[in-house]
Structure formats: C-alpha cells, structure tokens
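Section 5.1 Outputs to date
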Amino acid sequence: MADKQISLPAKLINGGIAGIVGVSCVFPIDLAKTRLQNQSNGSRLYTSMSDCLIKTIRSEGYFGMYRGSAVNLTLVTPEKAIKLAANDFFRHHLSKDGKLTLVKEMLAGCGAGTCQVVVTTPMEMLKIQLQDAGRIAAQRKLMPETVAPGAVEFKSPTAMQITRELLREKGIAGLYKGLGATLLRDVPFSIIYFPLFANLNRLGNRGVEGPAPFYVSFVSGCLAGSTAAVAVNPVDVIKTRLQTLTRGGQEEAYTGVSDCISKILRNEGPTAFLKGAYCRALVIAPLFGIAQVVYFLGVGEFILSYLPKGEK
C-alpha cells in the first residue's frame, strides 16, 4: 500500500463506495449478530444466526432484516473513508524508503482505529438501538414472563427520536456512550487487520513492484477481516451491551466495561463473550474484502478523472 500514492479525495470516494456496497450486502448478518449478542440466558429468543433471520422475516418482513441500515449507510462513508485514509496516512509517514516494519504497520493500524471511532461510536450507538428493537418487541410478545411488572409498552424508536432524546438528556456525550469499549475493539482490530492484510496481499504481488491482482486483495481482506473480527469479538459483545439503551424485561443494565464483564461472567459464563462471533466474521470478511477491491481498483481515481480539474 505504501508504494501507491493516492490523493485524499480518491481515498474518501473509495472508502465511501466500499462501505456502502459492503454494508448493503452483509447488513442482515450484522443485525443477527447484534440480536444474538444482546440476549441473555434467561431470555433467549434466537438459537442461531439462521433462526434469528428466519424469525425476523416472519415477524417483521424482508425489510426487517435491514432495520437500522439507513444510519449505517449514511455514516459508513465517512467511517470507512477515515479508516482507510488514516491507515494510508500513517503508513506513509512511518515508512522509510517505502518499507515498513511489522511494529510500524501495527502503529499505523492503531492510528487508523483511533481516528475512526469519532464516527463509529455514534453510528453503532444508533444502529444497535434500531437493530435490537425487533428482538425486544418479539421477546415481550412471546416471552411475557421476562417483562418486568409495570413496564411500559415498547414502541420501536426512529434514529431521529433516539438522537434527539440522547442530545436532550446527556448532550453530545450521549451519542458517545460506549466510546471506551469501541476504542478497545477498533484499535486492536486495526492493529491486527491492516498488517495482516498488507502481508497477505504482498504474497500475491505479480512482481516486485507490481500490485496484487484484485482477487488477491479480496481474499486477503476477507481472511484478515475475519481473523481480526473473531479476535476482538469479546469486546464487541461488551460494546453492544453497553450501547443498548432499552434492555428487554429483566435483563440487567451495565454501568461500565468492568461492570459489564463481571455481570456477564456471573450470569452467563465466559462463553457469552463468543456470542455472535460467527456472524461477525461473516459480516467483516466480505465487508473488508469488498473495501480493499474498490480501494485497489482505484474507483475513486476513475471517478475523479472525469471531473473538471477545478472540482477535484
């Protein structure tokens, strides 16, 4: 990646297109991941990813699988653009004669992961509420014994309603609930993903200086993404629980990362941290495979080449 100089506008376009295409393809699996991670042992409504998707279609229709996708599609462009552009920026400034040591590759990934949480945290905060709304509604209907006495009727909120409520009650900090957990997930993810992708992709180079074929970039992105996703899944479970504002029935609320860890261990055991790992791997693999193909095919450069020079 370090030997390919790409303009910042092209990086932003590539990241945005990659994010939109990727999210459109894998969002139903991401919804299943969120709902599986959010159900505790006492209120299990779904037994697997396929069970979750089938029940979602039956109760909410086909488009129920895309609940919350509008938020993701809106914010995934800056999120992916920041992630990919920041990684290239740090790699460029850390490289010496176009070469990077493994430690510097990890530092570049760390910088990219840190930068992206500015967009990732509020995006996931809103997405999780919308994705989990169907689970809470179905749980209250099918498992009334889990609903606390005197609980008010649950109504699925919209993204704007959630945003206004959070801003009114807690200010901008409300949208950044779970920031610490998001950092704990995204920084290690990027530290693992970017160096692993770069080294896997390098194995497929056509020549010493030539870029890898697009299918090598796709496979490398899938392998690196799924590996990093599974590695940080325990933190993703914690982040999902912390960012869920409306818990279903008797499920406990969490005050912070350490409180969340202790309650999950006490009530559900260590295997709870693996909830949704399979779904997350299936989400992240094609998401980053598609992202790298778009990035390395130079879709952004192609689009910019047709714009007047004054608009680039």
